[in-house]
Write a structure and sequence with these properties.
Two copies of one chain form a homodimer. By secondary structure, the first copy, chain A, is of the alpha+beta class. The first copy, chain A, has helices spanning 28-36, 58-68, 115-127, 137-148, 163-178, 195-198, 202-205, 236-253, 262-277, 280-301, 330-342, 367-387, 408-422, 437-445; strands at residues 84-88, 91-94, 99-102, 183-186, 216-219, 305-311, 314-322, 327-328, 345-346, 348-350, 356-359. The two termini of chain A are 46 Å apart.
């Protein structure tokens, strides 16, 4: 069994069970890894993965997936999927040892395969893993520590097996407490993959075959960039709130068991420890602000960027074909995430128009990572704008997004087919990595 | 980090990180453990847990649970809960090192904390754990191996986070495929804890506040012991099938993402390996048949046992107050599971009347365990029957359950209060470990 061991410096030695290849040639990523270590004591990519044995070739994995896994379980980058065999911190590695900067897996909250988290899981797995119907210290300790991070009134926990299960339970609690079934949901919202949540997820019932149930009420998304009330409105917050108030007035006139097991709670406790010990909240604020500033400079440089918004490391880059009309640049967003993948950066596109590049990396993301990511984005945007004749040089100030000098006609012409194509399959609208519009655009651009 | 290591004999050495106490005095359980090793190469309880540090005393754990965990998350043996700190194979250990024979946790399918399963989890956790949107060998290999155990037509897998999520998805697939919403469900059925499943779980909507939805149709449970059509019916199978047919005729006239991650698939593959390598299916058949035979002898001896039924190691012991009327012995079942707990055997009571002792242990359960369990049950039933004046000596043959000589009046009198009491809280009906009828009965019996 490959153990994780630590020397006095907390440096991680590789699992014994895995063949250690010779160090590869210096790669650009090595420099970034060096930068990423500061204050973290955990060098990523300390051993080379290229020599790790695969069970199947990538083609065979893909074929077996087609045969045995339900087609609704989509892969990222459907027209050219990645096979990931290893990950550490904010880096993922494919079967050839290629390193990708991970800007999308915020679920790996404190970084992929954090040794403290793995250690806590192992220690508990060896002792006991069972349901929450026996008394156990881990569940109460985890609940206590989670509660301590929340307002005093929120002191009782229900552990569930997924975010969807949590939302389903929240719905039931609310319906039990109020005695009403009515739900107000935001337009385009996604609340989970269960029957009860699909019912209240407009992205699903507005685009698919499902119909809106009578008890579901849809309020406009409070989006001041492209929504119903924008930043030129005198009080957009009140305007959006009034929409909800009106829905309430109109409407008025008319249990989980294996979750919370000792292992998952031990893992949760280790994650809380790592967040504290590595000061990851401060890191998210600092690196997030740094990244937002870098992106704002990009916005001033590239006419495709219409808006930068977000909090901490959760950031959206809203791409537009026309600053005044704020026309979503959907095909461009698809093109960019595939091109970023070639540059070894994992990004996704989201939003009702799938034109918003979404950044939500593990919280150990560094300023070096931010610089690398923005550098690659800059290059791709530059090539894209040159190819489509929309190159602009600081034509738009940060606060006057409407002063675009984009060469609209050429651009619109070039992308017309791909945009049409992207409307064909509404079920593929979410997370934006599944369309094949990329290949069409790529052919035209030949970048 | 405490690794799991194996010597040539496959003997497990304890994790280094945990204090190893001196071996305790020989206990009865040691003999059983010896018997349990045959052909398995994995001695349980190799180190003594009494010296392991607890974070909180049992009382503090209980108090914190009351404060921070939602009350709908019930504990086993509510009036006297157990704190379990460690488990191996079919044994669980409390904070004092007391060993319990586990007859209820079939989720720990190949035995608690199986070192091969732990090893597989650790190996994968150190490498990569992420969602199923990247290509990975584990998900396709696990799907392939699961499919190989199923009929050829069943070759496509959807991985979910829980049995409830699986049932919700199955419902959606069926409704999508048929274009109909109607569902036929068996009376008393429990299908999961999600909104969509509570709707089709009669145990919930018949007993609680929820009302049956129009699209839900309830068919009688095909129970030939206490159901609508019994073993004296000329063709009970057809009779139950006809009920379903009639419902169909009446009705006609009127996707998941983090599940299937590399770690859970590695664990699943290790479980399949252990089942094969340790021949656990054969074990379940052999030990299950052995246990059923032992229990049938108990049925001949104890008038409280009305029926023994089940397949393999999933066995029910139907307790009755009256063989002819088959009156459920609900309070007795509660009493027995608490008494079995005192004898260090974990059992539960289930069924619409909570009078069926339910056995569903890990699959590594041995003949020694079966003997021990039946021996304890025999002792408890003997004392119970003596105390209530219902002692019988082989008065009922296995096939003539109606010839009881039970002293009905005394028995009924004694248990009247507890039975009434057990009806008070319908929400506690499931899994039968939550009522306090035990203490009332215990006081009377003073056993």
């Amino acid at each position: 069994m490959p153990p994780v061991t630590s020397d006095a410096q907390g440096k991680r030695t590789p699992p014994r069970g895995i063949t250690r290849g010779k160090p590869g040639p210096p790669r650009q990523s090595q420099a970034r890894e060096g930068g990423a270590q500061t204050g973290q004591g955990r060098p990523p990519g300390a051993w080379h993965p290229a020599t790790m044995c695969e069970l199947y070739s990538k083609q065979d994995t893909l074929a077996l997936r087609g045969k045995h896994i339900g087609p609704s379980c989509k892969v990222f980058f459907a027209s050219d999927p990645i096979k990931i065999v290893r990950a550490q911190r904010q880096y993922m590695f494919d079967e050839n040892g290629e390193q990708y900067l991970d800007c999308i897996n915020n679920v790996a909250h404190v970084g992929h395969c954090h040794p403290e988290v793995v250690k806590a899981a192992l220690k508990q797995m060896e002792l006991l893993n069972t349901n929450s119907r026996f008394l156990h210290d881990n569940i109460v300790e985890y609940a206590k520590r989670l509660s301590a991070t929340l307002p005093e009134k929120l002191s009782v926990c229900y552990f569930t097996n997924s975010g969807s299960e949590a939302n389903d339970l929240a719905l039931r609690l609310a319906q039990q407490f109020t005695g009403h079934q009515d739900v107000i949901t935001l337009d385009h919202a996604y609340h989970g993959h269960l029957s009860s949540l699909i019912e209240i997820s407009p992205y699903k019932f507005l685009k698919g075959k499902d119909v809106k149930k009578e008890f579901v009420h849809v309020a406009p998304t409070p989006d001041t960039y492209r929504g119903k009330y924008r930043e030129d409105h005198e009080d957009p917050a009140r305007a959006y709130a009034d929409e909800v108030k009106k829905i309430i007035e109109d409407a008025q006139s008319s249990g989980r068991m294996y979750a919370g097991n000792p292992v998952s709670c031990a893992v949760g406790l280790a994650v809380l420890d790592v967040i504290e010990n590595e000061d990851l909240q401060e890191n998210a604020t600092r690196v997030g602000n740094f990244l937002t500033e870098l992106l704002k400079k990009q916005k001033a440089k590239h006419t495709l960027i219409g808006d930068i918004r977000g909090i901490g490391l959760f950031i959206g880059i809203d791409l537009v074909k026309d600053h005044q009309k704020r026309t979503p640049a959907t095909a461009e967003a698809q093109h960019i995430i595939y091109k970023m993948k070639e540059k070894r950066v994992l990004l996704s596109a989201d939003g009702p128009h799938r034109n918003v590049l979404k950044i939500k990396p593990p919280m150990c993301f560094t300023e070096e990572d931010a610089k690398f990511m923005v550098h690659q984005l800059d290059g791709i945007l530059t090539v894209l704008e040159e190819a489509t004749g929309t190159k602009t040089e600081s034509v738009t100030s940060e606060n006057t997004p409407c002063e675009t000098k984009m060469l609209k006609e050429a651009h619109v012409e070039l992308l017309r087919d791909s945009t049409t194509n992207s409307k064909e399959n509404p079920s593929r609208k979410r997370n934006g990595m599944y369309t094949d519009t990329h290949s069409l655009l790529s052919k035209r651009l030949k970048t």
